Amino acid sequence: MSGLKTFRKVSHVIFDMDGVLLDTEIVYKNAIQSIASRYGKVYTPHIMGKVIGTPERESSRIAVQEMELPISVEDFQTEFRNRAHNLFKTTVQLMPGAALLVKHLHSNKIPIAVATSSSQDSFNLKTAHHQNIFQLFDHIVCGGSDPDVKAGKPNPDIFLVCASRFSDNPNAEKCLVFEDAPNGVTAAVRAGMQVIMLPDENVPEELQREAHITISSLEEAPLQLFGLPPLQT
């Protein structure tokens, strides 16, 4: 665990989904690399750092542009979606510590929500086998299809919308965010929230520096530093 030394106390917690609650980033990585390989291109960690956490359309645009693929963004997005969604039809695993942390916060009556760049349809597909966990959240914001989310990460919209939908409409500074993607971290910081980052192993260190703390697993979540009940592992 690494990060700064002093933190604000919070009252609400917001989770990204892919790569934080669900182990889906490997699916996205394999889907993009399989398309890139057809054109002799490589999906590098540098490009991955730009793609992770963005809406599907933006992910497709970045991939096509950065790898100079000779196909349209629309064609890439269609193939990417088909490949990824076929893989999601098999059980997507929870990230280590996800169930423990979510149940802990819920049992301690800490308001919790999900802010994902996925569309509602994609969310439903990915979470089909984990309804027992996702039903514990106060609400879910699917940025890929929610009309109130005008711009995707790294813009702060999704986190501000998510915070506003808690019943007590907390100030942004009262919200703690769990993210794995540099774009998501930037979005949360721009929203005025503190961020705990679980960086993908392929995300370069220089793209992790904006986070307030980095951890390698949700089992390490230092809740007590933010005035929340400490996690019992």
Provide the fold topology.
Layout (H helix, E strand, L loop, with lengths): L1 E2 L8 E4 L9 H13 L7 H7 L4 H11 L6 H16 L9 H10 L4 E5 L3 H8 L3 H4 L4 E4 L14 H8 L10 E5 L2 H9 L3 E4 L15 E2 L19
Protein name: Pseudouridine-5'-phosphatase
InterPro entries: HAD-like_sf, HAD-SF_hydro_IA, HAD_2, HAD_sf, PGP-like_dom2
Pfam families: HAD_2
Notes on the protein architecture:
This protein is an alpha/beta fold. It has two domains: 2-23 and 93-226, Rossmann fold (3-Layer(aba) Sandwich); 25-88, Putative phosphatase, domain 2 (DNA polymerase, domain 1). Helices cover 37% and strands 11% of the residues. The protein has nine helices and seven strands; from the N terminus they run ββαααααβααβαβαββ. The chain has a seven-stranded mixed β-sheet with strand order 1-7-6-5-2-3-4, with helices on both faces. Helix 9 (182-190) links the parallel strand 5 and strand 6 (194-197). It is globular and about 50 Å long. The two termini are 16 Å apart. The mean pLDDT is 92. This is Pseudouridine-5'-phosphatase. InterPro entries: HAD-like_sf (IPR036412), HAD-SF_hydro_IA (IPR006439), HAD_2 (IPR041492), HAD_sf (IPR023214), PGP-like_dom2 (IPR023198). Pfam families: HAD_2. GO terms for molecular function: phosphatase activity.
Based on secondary structure, the structural category is alpha/beta
Instruction: Specify Rg, calculated over alpha carbons.
Output: 17 Å
The appropriate CATH architecture of the largest domain is 3-Layer(aba) Sandwich
**What is the CATH first-level class name of the largest domain?**
Alpha Beta
What fraction of the residues are assigned to beta strands by DSSP?
5-15%
Q: How large is the count of helical segments?
A: 9
| Average pLDDT for all residues | 92
Could you name the ranges where pLDDT drops below 50 across 5 or more consecutive residues? none
| Bulk shape | globular
Which range best describes the helical content: under 10%, 10-25%, 25-40%, 40-55%, 55-70% or over 70%? 25-40%
By CATH, the superfamily of the largest domain comes out as HAD superfamily/HAD-like
| Major β-sheet profile | 7 strands, mixed
Compute the number of structural domains: 2
Sheet with the most strands: spatial strand order:
1-7-6-5-2-3-4
